[in-house]
Structures are given as C-alpha cells and as structure tokens.
Amino acid sequence: MALEVTERLPGRDNTELRGLDALDLGDSHQRSRRVWQAAWPKLAAIVLALGAWQAVVLSGWKPSYLLPGPLPVFRELGHQVTTGDFWKAVSITMTRGLVGFAIAAVIGLVLGVVVSRSRVLRAAIGSLITGLQTMPSIAWFPLAILLFQLSEQAILFVILIGAVPSIANGVIGGVDYVPPLLLRAGRNIGASGLSLYRHVVLPAALPSIVSGLKQGWAFAWRSLLAGELLVSIANRPSLGVFLTQSRELGDTTYMIALMIAILAIGIAVDAVFASVDTGLRRRRGVTA
Question: What percent of the chain has pLDDT over 70?
C-alpha cells in the first residue's frame, strides 16, 4: 500500500507541474495578445501615414528637394542620432521643457487650489485663466523678448504663460466635479478646511488634475519649440535652432527628420501620462 502511494505521488506532482506550466504559458500568451492588441492600431496608422506620404511624393506634386520621401528622411534621422550635436540639442530642449513644466505645474496646482476654494477669486480671475489658455503662446514672444531680451528667461516666461492656465483649469474642473456625497462623508468623519481638501477633494479630483497636467505639458512643449524657433542663444544649440537652420539652408530632408524626432519625443511623453492615467483608472475600478 505504501508502495502504491509513493508510486502515485510523482505522477501527481508531474501533473500539477504540467498544469502550472500551462497556466504560465497561458498568462504569457494573454500578455502577448494584449500587447499586440494595443500595438497593431498604432503600427497600422504609421504604415498608412508613410504610405500616404510616399504616394504624395510619387505624384510629383512637389520636387524631391522640397518634399523628400520617407526613405531619405529616415536615413538622415538615423545618421543624426549617431551624432553628438543632435543629442546635445535634444538634451538642451528637454531640459528647458522639463524645468519649465515643473515650475508651471507647481504654480498651476497652487493657483487652481486657491481659485477653486475662493468664490471671489474665481469670479475675479476664473475667466482670465481660461482666456490665457486660449491665447496663442507665440503672441507672448514680442513682450517676452522686450522684457528679457534673447535669453533663457524669455523662453521660460512663454512656457509658463502657456502651461499654467491649463494646469490650473484642470484642478478647478476636477474640484468642481467632486461628488457632494464625498464631501459630506469627509465632513462626517471630522475633515474640514485644508484637511478636507487634502484627504477628500484632491484625491477625488486627481484624474482631472492628471488630465490638466497632460494638457499643460502639450502647451509647454509647443511654447518651447515656438520659442526656440524665434530665440537663438549663443552656444546653446537646440532642436528649434536646428529647425531654423535647416529651413535657411533649404535642407528639407534634415528639417523633416528633426520634425519626426520632435514628434517622437511628444509621443513618448504622452505615453507616460497615458500610463499614469490608466493606473489611476484601474485603481479606481473604472477599467479592468
């Protein structure tokens, strides 16, 4: 009898191991499937865009020196990513963008909280914040150059003007849509004033705040590139400066390669915000 038990145990263990292996393979297959489901629409869009681009080039609408095809442009981009000057320009542009966005985030979050808490301030400057958000950032550059000359401060000024209103409006909108039931529940457990904002209002408004930060980055990025096209600082090469130089030299292939690099950076940052947003929605049970 004991012999039968010892003979059956290995078989049972092998069966359990085979079941666990099958489960692991199933999980791996599901992960691969989810990755593919998320990736194939983007890949299809890229293929369609490149196909349309190549079709326009083949139509002869513009000569090749004005509108090159995808192949020479990506060949030029591949060459640029191997050079130190390109990465130095990317570093300077990204540093300006991140520093400007960080300062704008602090100012915008504080401004949004203060305005959302005060009816007087909302009545006084609420519409002004929205008006500043709709105003094109490039319209501020003549004033920025007069105030700060051709300097880093001029670029930073326009980044802040472009990004702060979007972030502040994200906070205000998020606070406005906090369910009254949550506010009553917070007051019932003793929260009030800043404690109510810290533990109830701001966590409930967090998805809208993240959305405002994402929009603020978009405005900051656009303002930054517009500034770099207009403001050239000695010994500070940037993507915007290289774009201006390529236009002046008539090097369209190089110019479009730089535009693709700028687009790729924007998509990468957007993916970070999308990941944060997805994590928030998953933790709140909004998505599976």
Answer: 87
Torsion, Cα 72 73 74 75, to 10 degrees, reads 40
**H runs (alpha helix) in the chain:** 2-58, 70-80, 84-117, 119-134, 141-148, 152-176, 180-188, 194-196, 202-230, 239-249, 252-283
Closest among 226, 89, 217 to 145, alpha carbons compared = 226
Report pLDDT digits (tens) over 62-95. 887 888 888 999 999 999 999 988 999 999 999 9
Q: Let me know: does 135 contact 166? Beta carbons within 8 Å.
A: no
**What is the signed CA dihedral for 60, 64, 70, 71, rounded to 10 degrees?**
120
In angstroms, what CA-CA distances link 7 with 15, 17, 19, 176? 13, 16, 19, 69
CA distances from residue 4 to 1, 10, 12 in whole angstroms, order as listed: 5, 11, 12
